[in-house]
Amino acid sequence: MFNYWIFVMVEYNDYNMSIVDGLKRLENDKVWKIGERTANRKNIKKGDRALIYSSGEGNRDFVASGILGSEYMNDGRPIYGHAIFEEVTIFSNKVSLKSVLKNLDFVKNKDIYGSYFQSGIIRIGEKDYNTILKKAKALNRS
User: Fold this and answer.
1) Of 3, 6, 137, 141, most Cβ neighbours within 10 A?
2) What does residue 68 show for φ and ψ, rounded to 5 degrees?
3) The total number of structural domains that make up the chain
């Protein structure tokens, strides 16, 4: 049995890290850096399913999915640890949050949906995961 997660990706202007750059790095390195105070970091485990959500100004989209290849690991660095992805699928056509929002159970108050995406790692149910992934598969058929 595995868990379902949303990993929130934000553009970091201070580091010249765009969402596109972050996705390329994830696809190539399969490493997701996790801050030492990130909620749920110690609950993720190998085999868990994840959706990658791009947040911030001009971004409110699901952009990738993946399977975790590790639990949260911290090698003694004071700022962050990381998790390894076993598999990453970047969506060629992103899924707008607004296109699935009304069907997401974990967002209880749809008027303030942004507050549900303020944590770096968000636990969701299988139904919500499948709702988003189904939309992604429909948009990304070749």
Assistant:
1) 6
2) -75, 140
3) 1
Higher pLDDT, 27 or 19: 27
Give the closest residue to 84 by CA, choosing from 66, 99, 100, 103: 66
pTM exceeding the 0.85 threshold for the entire prediction:
yes
Read off the pLDDT of residues 38-92 as tens digits, 9 standing for 90 and up. Answer: 999 999 999 999 999 998 777 899 999 999 999 999 877 777 899 999 999 999 9
- Number of Cα atoms under 13 Å in the Cβ half of residue 103: 15
- Percent of the chain having pLDDT more than 70? 96
Residues of the domain holding 97: 4-139
Query: How many other CB atoms sit within 10 Å of the CB of residue 142?
Result: 3
CA distances from 48 to 76, 81, 86, 103 (A): 24, 17, 10, 22
pLDDT value at residue 17:
72
CATH code for position 8? 3.10.590.10
> Is 109 exposed, middle or buried, given 0-12, 13-18 or 19+ CB atoms closer than 10 A?
exposed
Report d(CA 40, CA 89) in Å as an integer: 22
Q: Structure tokens of 111?
A: 């008027």
